[in-house]
């Protein structure tokens, strides 16, 4: 089982460059040198064209660090080099920072395969409270949405993320997301073509069948860079 830790940083675009450099030179090396992380990727924002959603750029920075276990994650974040790197996030008073930890599940493509996530463009989706019955929502989503997504043209991967109970030694604000989803493509052009296909309308029809839900959701197109190439997702 993979435990995926995500650090989200958002704010004015003027801080994007220094945040990406911080991930490259401070945060990723500290995580890597802990000896417990299996893979690290940084996400940079792009913009998708969705017929049902207003265009929104992705977060200024997302960092995903994968760990074999929750204990490995918690131990790594408690180590001084990692905590020190997190304390040095650029423009900290001017950006919004949240963290989350998930188990990861891959879903089959139309041919039945579940290949490693290697294509670089991810459409990152999160669902947030309030919601009365999150378990019912997640069950419906998992049963219905991925099989439809598998029919997207040129789709490379389908993943869902499920929150775990964990302790963050750095006490950063939690995202409180109760479900994550990610569809992966070779480029934003391929993502946009998929979103313009009939499959997108089928997903919207399924969305209207979701159990009652009062919270918000976000959809961000983001390119990933491998900062530490351990085992593939």
Overview of this structure, please?
- With 233 residues, the protein is of the alpha+beta class.
- It has one domain: Alpha-Beta Plaits (2-Layer Sandwich), CATH 3.30.70.100.
- Helices cover 30% and strands 29% of the residues.
- It has an eight-stranded antiparallel beta barrel with strand order 1-3-2-8-5-7-6-4, surrounded by four helices.
- Helix 1 runs antiparallel to helix 3 and helix 4 (134-149) runs antiparallel to helix 6 (198-207).
- The longest helix is centred in the first third of the chain and has 18 residues, at 16-33.
- The protein is globular, with a radius of gyration of 17 Å.
Quick overview:
This protein is of the alpha+beta class. The protein has six helices and eight strands; from the N terminus they run E-H-E-E-H-H-E-E-H-E-E-H-H-E. It has a single domain, classed as Alpha-Beta Plaits, CATH 3.30.70.100.
- The coarse overall form would be globular
Q: How would a textbook summarize the main sheet?
A: 8 strands, antiparallel, barrel
Question: Would you report the number of β strands?
Answer: 8
Helix content: 25-40%
Overall structural class, as computed from helix and strand content, comes to alpha+beta
Mean pLDDT: 96
Tell me the strand percentage band. Answer: 25-35%
Strand order within the widest sheet?
A: 1-3-2-8-5-7-6-4
Q: Radius of gyration, Cα only, in angstroms?
A: 17 Å
Q: Termini separation (Å)? A: 10 Å
Count of individual domains: 1
Low-confidence stretches: none
Report the CATH topology name: Alpha-Beta Plaits
| Element pattern in H and E | EHEEHHEEHEEHHE
CATH architecture: 2-Layer Sandwich
Count of separate DSSP helical elements: 6
């Amino acid at each position: 089982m993979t435990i995926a830790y995500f650090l989200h940083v958002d704010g004015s675009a003027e801080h994007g460059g220094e945040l990406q450099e911080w991930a490259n030179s401070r945060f990723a090396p500290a995580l890597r040198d802990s000896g417990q992380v299996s893979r690290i990727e940084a996400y940079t924002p792009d913009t998708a064209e969705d017929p049902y959603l207003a265009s929104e750029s992705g977060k200024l920075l997302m960092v995903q660090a994968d760990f074999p276990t929750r204990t490995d994650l918690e131990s790594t974040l408690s180590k001084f080099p990692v905590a020190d790197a997190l304390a040095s996030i650029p423009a900290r008073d001017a950006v919004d920072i949240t963290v989350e930890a998930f188990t990861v599940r891959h879903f089959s493509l139309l041919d039945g395969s579940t290949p490693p996530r290697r294509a670089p463009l991810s459409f990152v989706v999160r669902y947030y409270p309030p919601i009365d019955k999150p378990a019912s929502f997640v069950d419906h989503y998992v049963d219905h949405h991925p099989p439809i997504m598998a029919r997207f043209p040129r789709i490379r991967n389908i993943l869902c993320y499920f929150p775990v109970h964990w302790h963050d030694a750095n006490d950063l604000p939690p995202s409180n997301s109760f479900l994550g989803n990610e569809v992966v493509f070779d480029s934003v052009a391929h993502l946009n073509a998929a979103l313009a296909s009939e499959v997108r309308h089928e997903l919207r029809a399924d969305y209207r069948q979701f159990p009652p839900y009062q919270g918000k959701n976000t959809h961000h197109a983001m390119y990933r860079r491998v900062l530490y190439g351990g085992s593939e997702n």
